[in-house]
Specification:
By secondary structure, the protein is an alpha/beta fold. The chain folds into 2 domains: 119 residues, Rossmann fold, CATH 3.40.50.2300; 70 residues, Winged helix-like DNA-binding domain superfamily/Winged helix DNA-binding domain (Arc Repressor Mutant, subunit A), CATH 1.10.10. Helices cover 50% and strands 14% of the residues. It has a 6-stranded parallel β-sheet. α7 crosses α9 and α8 crosses α9. The protein is globular and about 50 Å long.
Amino acid sequence: MKIVLYSKSNFIADELKKESILFKELLILTEFEKLKEVCASDAHTIVLHHLDDFPLENESLTDLLKRNKHLHLIALANTPNNLQGCRLLQMGYKSYLHAVSNSGILKSAIESVAKNNIYVYPQLMQFLVTQIPTSLQKNKNLDTLTPKELDVLQLVSKGYSNAKIAKELDIAEVTVKKHIGSMFEKLEVKDRLSLALILK
């Protein structure tokens, strides 16, 4: 898997390099023509697009996305807002984050996007959940969840991060991840947004 940072920001590059195992072959590009060459291959490629450095490239990147099913896009914004995030997700981006996200968040986003899932910051998740009509059919497997999983699900549906859920329920963050993984299986969903919508 190729990971490409399309940015002029040293901060983002430095944060990614903190996760040296995942990003040992990180490619940093600042020219669209070179990015096009890299994205033209059949290799799985994740591009972190720093929107503020290249604000006019969204449509060009989504055109590349249409031609390459192995390409995944992550948008990074200096001042993220929910409407821009929604628009980019509709265009085909798989993730929308603050440009100064720490290495742990960037790693989680890349791992999620690599599995073809969506990864967004908690406020955007909450915004997306509130935009979905309440008439969606409830998941029939809710009765298979443990009481603690239901507690976690309630907080996921409010857009809480794993760290915030762990603090709220006074459990370890790794335990929250285990509960969420278990709920993915039991409720037959593949990403956090789908999980959050179950209680909508």
